[in-house]
Design goal:
The structure holds two protein chains of two kinds. Chain A has one helix at about 35-45; strands at about 5, 10-15, 20, 50-60, 65-70, 80. By secondary structure, chain A is mostly beta strands. In chain A, the strands form two sheets. A four-stranded antiparallel sheet of chain A has the order 3-4-5-6, with no helix packed on it. Chain A has a two-stranded antiparallel ribbon with strand order 1-2. Chain B is α+β, with helices and mostly antiparallel strands. Chain B is globular. Chain B folds into two domains: about 20-45 and about 130-205, Gyrase A, domain 2; about 45-125, Heterotetrameric sarcosine oxidase (Alpha-Beta Plaits, 2-Layer Sandwich). Chain B starts with 9 loop residues before the first helix and ends in a 9-residue tail after the last helix. In chain B, the strands form two sheets. A five-stranded antiparallel sheet of chain B has the order 1-7-10-9-8. Classes of the chains: A mainly beta, B alpha+beta. The interface of A and B includes residues 9, 16 and 61 of A.
């Protein structure tokens, strides 16, 4: 059982959460211009990372808010918890570019406004800076 | 058994026809409760209102003025008089008030909240039928809950007057510690039967003498 530190509620059991898949998959800026192949890649193709993986989680039994988490898929170590819409913190000191098909802008499901509280986890990363980051949806994105 | 005379008012008729989500367990709750050890009862038909509003917005401040403040963070409870406001999420709150506060019984709580929201962004929704209320009280109530709740319920971590949305017996429940040895549990109506039987089962060992 993972002990996940929700940014709003603190440490809770994994069973209170729902998994939301890979984080930082932006909605295409111009979906109509994508080929079927590119559209399929946006919809269905996800990384199968061995190691640190950025993923979305929903605290469905608690505050019902989404957040991002950097988790090691081998050791299950939770390296960082950070709000939706903020860039991936670089926990391991590597440069890890966002993956996706068309845009590297923020995903359009941004709701995060609270600063992350990772005190309950064995986090090795510091909180990400949100100062220079736009939380608006990319141009052409639909709500 | 049948009502021979028509109720004097539609108000009384409504009350007599209502069946609470755990009404079928009322006798079991009485026999299953262990006097002065752990007691379980259903507080049926409390008025509950779902609020979704940003605390810092104008509408949020108007609502806070009506209800006696909105809670600031996870676990906190605010409110004035009979009505309490539980924190469910950053912009989501649950108002709990006595039965008489309901609109259909002449209470003014929901209309006043709706008026305070006005055309501001948010929701005021009557959720009285969404959940029922169990009250678990007695020195052993914490031990009963600890059989199915992963939260730290020790008094040093969970103070009286704290409400948390969590899982008890694997179902989602809002847990409100109203006193040092008193908990209120708010399961959704469809889970009430399950949680009631689960609690009765968890309470059963305390009816027997303690084995040294």
């Amino acid at each position: 059982m993972l002990l996940i530190s929700c940014p709003n509620c603190g440490s809770r059991d994994e069973t209170e959460f729902h998994y939301g898949g890979q984080a930082h998959v932006p909605y295409p800026e111009n979906p109509n211009e994508l080929s079927d192949r590119q559209w399929a890649e946006f919809l269905f193709y996800r990384d199968n990372t061995k190691g640190a993986f950025a993923e979305r989680w929903l605290h469905s039994t608690g505050c019902r808010q989404w957040f991002n988490m950097l988790r090691d898929t081998v050791t299950y170590e939770i390296q960082a918890v950070y709000p939706m819409g903020t860039p991936r913190p670089d926990a391991a000191g590597r440069v890890t570019p966002d993956t996706g098909t068309a845009s590297t802008a923020a995903d359009s499901t941004t709701t995060g406004n609270a600063s992350p509280d990772i005190s309950g986890t064995n986090a090795s990363a510091t909180a990400p800076s949100t100062s220079s980051f736009s939380t608006t949806a990319p141009e052409g994105a639909t709500k | 058994m049948a009502e021979t005379a028509a109720p004097a008012t539609s108000y009384e008729k409504n009350l007599s026809l209502r069946i609470s989500p755990a009404a079928q367990l009322r006798a079991a709750f009485e026999t299953g409760s262990v006097r002065d050890v752990v007691e379980l009862s259903e507080k049926a038909f409390l008025t509950m209102v779902g609020l979704r509003v940003n605390r810092d917005s104008d509408a949020g401040q108007r609502i806070a003025a009506v209800i006696g403040g909105l809670p600031a963070g996870c676990g906190s409870v605010s409110g004035s008089g009979d009505a309490s406001v539980l924190w469910l999420g950053p912009e989501e709150f649950l108002v709990i008030a006595p039965t008489e506060a309901h609109e259909s019984l002449g209470g003014g709580l929901i209309p006043s909240l709706r008026e305070a929201l006005g055309d501001g962004g948010g929701q005021v929704v009557d959720l009285s039928a969404n959940r029922t209320t169990f009250e678990l009280t007695g020195p052993r109530s914490r031990a009963v809950l600890e059989k199915g709740c992963a939260l730290d319920l020790h008094p040093r971590a969970l103070k009286a007057g704290t409400a948390l949305s969590t899982e008890i017996g694997n179902i989602p429940v809002v847990l409100w510690k109203t006193g040092e040895e008193t908990f209120r549990l708010f399961p959704r109506a469809s889970f009430a039967d399950f949680l009631g039987r689960w609690l009765l089962d968890a309470m059963r060992e305390y009816a027997s003498p303690e084995v040294p």
